[in-house]
TrEMBL record:
Domain statement: The nitrogen atoms of the two glycine residues in the GGXR motif define the oxyanion hole, and stabilize the oxyanion that forms during the nucleophilic attack by the catalytic serine during substrate cleavage.
The organism's taxonomic lineage, starting at the top: Eukaryota, Viridiplantae, Streptophyta, Embryophyta, Tracheophyta
Annotated PNPLA domain residues: 68-265
Motif extent (DGA/G): 252-254
Native organism: Aquilegia coerulea
Name of the protein in question: Patatin
Lineage: superkingdom: Eukaryota
EC number: 3.1.1.-
Length: 426
């Protein structure tokens, strides 16, 4: 009787309870938050009073860590993400009143897989003037002009469905572009995955790890080759760290991490040296850029290995998006934005750019816990424009905050070794 009366109580929200339970579970298993919702202390050795003060101040003053995540190829071979970045950077320049503003100025961490890793490298690698090498528009133009070598078109049907490339040509292209730059030479923390055949496990190239140990520092040209290496045949790419102590036989990062958003979030939440006050997803501001899902279908066709891998990558990306959305719970509309769209591949890259432009006017299909899908209220452009405003708010807030939201490690200017120093950053 008690149970029946409990369930019959109209004030009891079963959906809310279910949502809360699964949000807590996802936080626990995906991102390491505690089941009871309590936050991790900055240091296990600090006393209770100090932890209370730090938690209280961090909630009010420490702000949000800003994460950019970029998927692998998709139906647009990276063009949708590149076009999204152009729109976002243009919006940032206009709202901030600085025509020279860059994507890297407003993000603390960038993660990219496959062609998304190439975009992250282009936008976050330090140039000769100390600023990022490429603007978002430069990166888009590079992708359009060089896309035939990075992501060659499939001979069948003449469309951009193949997600692989000719290794020798792209390796040369990346070496010309990035020279001797290594993961240490990115302006902010960057994460780029591959799959290592020698250990049969994913490997995540990381600026943070590179600064700690030369055995985890790799040339950016090699990293780009690794994250886009052909997994279907003899296209595996062999690379070594700068000290030759770590050796990897890499294939496409999209095999296991086509959507690197969860990896980026986990990296931030577990990196207390650089993000000391970031304790849960409430302390994050995340944009995840997809690259389109083909709506042409494969019914009645024999699936090639390339199509099977593409479908697997798209499905894995959607699952990561759904898991991350559930982990954010009630903060999903204010702290997390996912850009994705549907569209059939085109015959040439100029048409692909036009398609990506149209995709930005689409409204996403979003996952609802136990209720399937729904169409988002805002278009992709509207969401990016709103997100630009949130990035600028956080950027401005840090100017008057007494607490450093991030404490990036940098190479000491007095030595060429892996000695690192910590600097505060806005």
């Amino acid at each position: 009787m008690a149970m029946n009366s409990f369930l019959d109580n109209e004030s009891y929200d079963v959906d809310k309870l279910t949502h809360d339970i699964f949000a807590l579970l996802e936080n626990k298993f995906l991102f390491g938050s505690s089941i009871d919702g309590t936050k991790h202390s900055v240091s296990e050795k600090t006393d209770f009073k100090h932890r209370t003060i730090v938690d209280s101040l961090s909630k009010n003053d420490a702000g949000k860590v800003r994460i950019l995540s970029i998927d692998g190829g998709g139906s647009t071979d990276g063009v949708l993400a590149a076009k999204s970045l152009v729109f976002l950077e243009t919006s940032l320049c206009q709202k901030y009143g600085n025509p020279n503003a860059r994507i890297a100025d407003f993000f603390d961490v960038a993660a990219g897989s496959g062609v998304g890793g190439i975009l992250a490298a282009l936008l976050f690698t330090r140039g000769k003037d100390g600023r990022p090498m490429f603007t978002a528009n430069d990166a888009l133009q590079f992708l359009v002009k060089s896309g035939g070598r990075l992501v060659p078109s499939s001979k069948k049907n003449g469309v951009f469905r193949q997600i692989f490339r000719s290794a020798s040509k792209t390796e040369k292209l990346f070496r010309q572009l990035f020279g001797e730059s290594t993961m240490k030479d990115t302006v902010k923390p960057v994460l780029i995955p591959c799959y290592d055949l020698s250990t049969r496990a994913p490997f995540l190239f990381s600026r943070t790890d590179a600064l700690e140990n030369d055995s985890y520092d790799f040339k950016i040209s090699d990293v780009c080759s690794a994250t886009t290496a052909d997994p279907t045949g003899a296209g595996a790419f062999q690379l070594s760290s700068v000290d030759n102590r770590t050796n990897i036989v890499a294939v496409d990062g999209g095999l296991t991490m086509n959507n690197p958003t969860a990896a980026a979030i986990t990296h931030v939440l577990n990196n207390k040296d650089e993000f000391p006050f970031c304790n849960s997803v409430e302390d994050l501001l995340v944009v995840s850029l997809g690259n389109g899902v083909s709506d042409s279908g494969c019914q009645g066709q024999t699936l090639s290995r390339a199509n099977i891998i593409r479908i697997g990558g798209e499905g894995a990306s959607d699952m990561v998006d759904e898991s991350v959305s559930m982990a954010f719970g009630g903060n999903v509309t204010s702290n997390y934005v996912r850009i994705q769209a549907n569209g059939a591949p085109k015959k040439n890259r100029n048409e692909l750019v036009e398609l990506a432009e149209k995709m930005l006017t689409q409204k996403n299909v979003e996952s609802i816990l136990f209720r399937g899908k729904k169409v988002a209220e805002k278009t992709n452009k509207d969401k990016l424009n709103w997100f630009a405003g949130e990035l600028i708010k956080e950027h401005e807030r840090r100017k008057s905050s007494i607490f450093p939201t991030v404490m990036f490690k940098q190479l000491s200017p007095r030595t060429s070794s892996a000695t690192v120093s910590t600097i505060f950053s806005c």
